[in-house]
UniProtKB/TrEMBL annotation:
It comes from the Bacteria. This is General secretion pathway protein L. Residues 330-369 are annotated as: Disordered.
Length: 369
C-alpha cells in the first residue's frame, strides 16, 4: 500500500492499475432496463448528479447489460492525478461474482456485505470490522433481495475470495459521453461505409446493365442484317403467294364465255337471254321464252348437260316479261364435250365408206376428145 486506501496488485507494472480499497468507496446499482440504449448515458448522468455521497465525487462505472454498477470516490481523498485516476479498480470488481443471495466478504481493509442476483451486485455495504447482528439485519432488509427475516437475522461466515481479472473496463462517469459519442461516430462510420458500398454496388450493377443493353442492341442489329435477305425473300414469297391465290381463284372460277356457250347448246331456239349473274358456284339467268315453250322443259334442258344442277325458277321476279332461273354449277369447268358435240362424228358419217376415185384418162383419149 503506497497511499492510504490505494493498492497496487502484486507483480503489476509500474504504470499498471491501482486497487481502491472498499472503505474509500460508496456503491449504488442503477437499473437502466427501461431506457433505450442510445439514452442510457444521459439517464445515468442524471441519476448520478442527484446522488452525491461526497462533496466532490468521482464515479467509476461498470456497465453490465442494462445495469450500471457505480462506485463513488472522493476526488481529493487520495490526491490523485488524472493519470492514476484513469487506472483505478474498485476492490469489489476484482473478485468473481458470487452466487445469488447475501454474502459477507473479507476486504483488504475491513469487510463488505454483498447482495448478488444473476451476476449483478444489487447492494453493498462496508464495515471496518465484522458487523453486529442488527447491522447485518438492516443491510439484508435494505438489499432488495426479498430474503426472509430468519435468513437475514443470521450472521454468515466471513468469506475470503480469490482475485479475479475483470472482463470489462471500468469507466469514469465523465467518460460515458465520450464513449457514447465514439459509439455514435462508429455507427455513423459504419452507416457511411454501408451506403458507400451499396452505392458502389448499385452503380456497378447499373453499368453492367447498360453494357448488357448495348450488347443486346448490337446483337439484334447484327441479326437484323443477317436476316434482311431472308426477310426480303419471305416478302417476295408472300407476294407471289397472294398473286398465285388470285390466279388460282380465277382459274377455278367458271368462265362467262363457257357458261354462255353451254347455255346456247342446251336451250331451244327462240329463247333470248335477258340477264346473267354468274357466281363462283351459282348462276342466275333471265330468259325470254316463246309462248308455246313450257318452263318445265327449260329446266329439264338446263339440267341435261350435267353442269347445271338444282335448277329452279325464281317466283319473285316481279312484273318482268321474262322468267328467271337459279342453278348451281357442279364444277368450275363444263363436262368434257363428246365427239357428237364437236361435230367430228357427224362429219365422218357423211363421207362414203369407200369412195371411188375417178379413173385416170389416157393421153390419146384425151387428145381425141
Amino acid at each position: 500500500m503506497t497511499r492510504e486506501g490505494l493498492f497496487r496488485p502484486a507483480g503489476a507494472a509500474a504504470r499498471g492499475p491501482w486497487l481502491l480499497a472498499r472503505g474509500l468507496l460508496r456503491y449504488r446499482c442503477v437499473n437502466l432496463a427501461g431506457v433505450p440504449p442510445a439514452d442510457r448515458a444521459g439517464a445515468l448522468q442524471a441519476q448520478l448528479a442527484a446522488w452525491q455521497p461526497f462533496p466532490d465525487s468521482v464515479f467509476l462505472v461498470d456497465l453490465l447489460g442494462d445495469q450500471a454498477q457505480v462506485f463513488a470516490l472522493e476526488r481529493g481523498a487520495l490526491e490523485l492525478d488524472e493519470r492514476i485516476a484513469s487506472e483505478l479498480w474498485p476492490e469489489s470488481l476484482l473478485h468473481e461474482p458470487a452466487s445469488d443471495g447475501l454474502h459477507l466478504v473479507e476486504c483488504l481493509e475491513g469487510c463488505e456485505g454483498q447482495a448478488w442476483l444473476n451476476g449483478v451486485l444489487l447492494a453493498s455495504r462496508w464495515w471496518a470490522q465484522k458487523p453486529a447482528l442488527d447491522e447485518w439485519v438492516a443491510f439484508g432488509r435494505q438489499s432488495r433481495m426479498g430474503v426472509s427475516r430468519r435468513d437475514a437475522e443470521v450472521l454468515p461466515e466471513l468469506e475470503r475470495l480469490a482475485w479475479f481479472k475483470p472482463l470489462r473496463p471500468v469507466l469514469r462517469a465523465d467518460q460515458l459521453g465520450y464513449a457514447a459519442l465514439g459509439n455514435e461516430r462508429l455507427l455513423m462510420g459504419v452507416t457511411v461505409l454501408s451506403l458507400l458500398a451499396f452505392t458502389t454496388w448499385a452503380a456497378r450493377d447499373a453499368w453492367d446493365s447498360r453494357q448488357e443493353s448495348i450488347a443486346a442492341r448490337q446483337a439484334l442489329e447484327a441479326v437484323k442484317q443477317d436476316a434482311a435477305p431472308l426477310l426480303a425473300a419471305r416478302d417476295k414469297a408472300l407476294a407471289a403467294a397472294d398473286q398465285s391465290a388470285v390466279l388460282i381463284k380465277q382459274l377455278t372460277a367458271p368462265f362467262p364465255l363457257e357458261v354462255i356457250d353451254h347455255l346456247a347448246k342446251l336451250l331451244p331456239k327462240g329463247i333470248t337471254v335477258k340477264e346473267l349473274d354468274l357466281g363462283p358456284q351459282s348462276l342466275r339467268v333471265g330468259l325470254e321464252l316463246p309462248t308455246d315453250l313450257s318452263r318445265a322443259k327449260v329446266v329439264n334442258d338446263l339440267e341435261s348437260g350435267g353442269w347445271f344442277t338444282q335448277v329452279s325458277e325464281v317466283k319473285d321476279a316481279g312484273v318482268r316479261s321474262w322468267a328467271t332461273f337459279e342453278m348451281k354449277l357442279s364444277a368450275a369447268r363444263p363436262p368434257g364435250r363428246s365427239s357428237n358435240d364437236s361435230g367430228l362424228k357427224r362429219g365422218a358419217a357423211e363421207l362414203p365408206v369407200n369412195p371411188e376415185l375417178p379413173k385416170p384418162v389416157a393421153p390419146q383419149q384425151a387428145g381425141k376428145s
